[in-house]
Input
Amino acid sequence: MKALTANRLTDGEVVFWTGSGWSERFVDAALFDDNTAAELAEAHAKSQITLLVDPYLIDIAEVDGGVAPVSYRERLRALGPTNKLDHGKQAGGGADIAVLAHAHGAARSKGRVDLIRRK
Amino acid sequence: MPRLIRFRDGVAAWAEDAFTAVDDDQPMPQGDVIISLARFQREGRDLLAQGRNLGVRLASDEEPEDLVVDLQRLSVLALTFPKFRDGRAYSAARVARERLAFRGELRAVGDVLLEMAVPLVRCGFDAAQPADLTTPEQWTHAARRFRHVYQRAADGREPAFAERLGG
Amino acid sequence: MYRYDDIDRETLADRAAEFRDQCARRLAGEMTEDQFKPLRLMNGLYLQLHAYMLRVAVPYGALNADQMRKLAHVARTYDRGYGHFTTRTNLQLHWIKLRDAPDILDELASVGLHAIQTSGNCIRNLTADPHAGATADEVDDPRIWAEVIRQWSTFHPEFTFLPRKFKIAVTASPKDRAAIRVYDIGLRLHRDDEGALSFEVLVGGGLGRLPHLGPVIRERLPVRHLLSYMQAILRVYNRHGRRDNIHKARIKVLVAALGPAEFARQVEEEWSLTDKAAVDLPGTELARIRAGFAPTGFETLPPVSAAFESAKASDKAFSRFARRNVMFHKTPGYALVNVSLKAIGETPGDCSADQMDVVADLAERYSMNEVRVTYEQNLLLPHVKLDDVPAVHAALVGAGLATANITLISDIIACPGLDYCALANARAIPIAQDIARRFSDPVLAENIGELKIKISGCINACGHHHVGHIGILGVDKKGEEFYQLTLGGSAEDDAAIGQVLGPAVSAERVAPAIDRLVEVYMRERRDGERFLDTFRRAGLPMFKEAVYAEAH
Output
């Protein structure tokens, strides 16, 4: 599963393609099961040079309560910095933010390799 | 064919390019030509003997010092920017102008963009073949953007420290 | 402090106007992002994870009160009320909008501030000893020479598109507080028996992927030839530095490949061909710049202050602050007061707009209108009367800026890391917060003594991890944050690159690992040894064993 993201040119805000426009919230992101459709959307986004900077596709996985970006970096983009929870998209709160924040905790503990013990 | 802009007294204008740029594998046309350093080393003497005006195009890893004996016989020294971020030609230009006293046309070729106007002119270039769609008016404006400069370079502009002495 | 004249001010105004034009062309679609990106970067404007980030230059770390207030104003008006001071003594604003950037540059220019050359493959904003003009051990004021280089390097036409970025640091003291051995060029001033000043020139230090300590390529350069010699170094680098591989493009790679002796020979040859008189500043201009830094307004005071001594005797917190954060000034009766941006549990280097205003007011009232930014991500009031230190301390306490931890275990350097930075592999800030909380007891921290922890969220090493007594490097392992520890590094006179302790550990194991390391040190240390000294004497295995013991 994929979603399409970019930063908005005028203010740098992280945005997600909804299928008909761009939203600041990950919960609005259109999810692509089909790579061809995803790449078509990406190509279209790349032509919107006065609107966007650097659109790209991200991997999405199912998590408790919904879906979330697979990579930690992308979850941070969808939430905001962890040192200031009142900044970024997470500041508004809501169920969708909770899903992402939880996914972040879950994905971090899931599959953790403790190298101290592995030695 | 990239068009040629020439700077005279700080004003840029479109210029007729009397020179044909010739690649190493092309047959030699008639008239004035710009050729690579390698080709110049093979054929330069003969071409000059034919009374032609000659230019040499240096790649960004070639140095004007390699031409030192012949430099004064050249009409054009073309310095290549393979990417606009490759700034080697600025050093080459200053060496050619300030150390080797080259007085012919110093031409910027390759990935030459408007935003390079200031460093190009300051380092002694007086001609450029822009790779973008910019106009001489834009180049004139861009090259004059700063009222002051802090260093002496190849363009003869008075640096801040000299201005301060005068003021 | 040096004040910009009309030439300096008009140059900043011209630059701001140029960037306004470039932004307009980008927003109108006349430029692609590929064309615009290098231009915005040359004005310090990055696109990071959540927004644009503006890196404002603080040349040689020196600010006056008006400039600090302007930074506060910009942080409040255009950002979210705070900024982050970096190891390059710049200020980074994390939540900037491109459409506001031209107005911000105008605001900054109005007080002589800018973001020129805070990114890009050019000569970057330069750093100097933050104790300049206040420390007794300097042979000259290094800011004079830093300002000379600032002007010379500003829009240098030949060196605008170098193979890679280029950083210069200047000190005039035997004690290195500017990390000159890890800079592309490190300059140390010397004064000989006749009083003549010269530079010791180090070239090719640096951190990042390939850490190097810069070798000396010239022992004594007469100061009047500083700029012509710099031009020679930069020209050799511009012409011969690698451009085929971004990871091998820094000057340190060229110096290492040629060997310092051959590199020095090439520089001397280039320099011998240089028309030095055309490049070097005339004596009159040097004198003009020097006058800008001349000490003024110091009073003749007794070396001991009754007010200071009685506050020390009566107030335990003040006494600790005086021990940790207050340093001797070359002028009797004055002190340097360090303002820690490392309050326990806060983000290292972060400073709120309100805190900036407090520091600006204190600078104006008590420190001859001067503030310094240190590469260890703290602020410093360089010229405070001992009599006034209690009042300054009280004001700092009120603003949450009085943490008495300078050089201690919680005085941690950390880059913004993955919380903000588009290049990072892992977060740095929460690691620093964890460690600081664990060692929040000031008595314990003082007992441990000097211990410099430096954390980077990726190999680019903005957090100087290679030269931390304990260095921590964030790495990505299959999408998870892991941290590699190094021990024994230093950025000072005893500069060294740290040794890797062992396999990387997960985020929540970092602070416990620091605990183990400190335990070993406390057990093994001999009289007067710092953590670094004990490590160097006792060696790596004992420390490694302690951290990885649970594996057995």
Observations:
- Strands of chain B lie at 4-8, 11-15, 20-21, 33-36, 54-58, 76-81, 105-110, 127-128.
- Chain B has a mean pLDDT of 95.
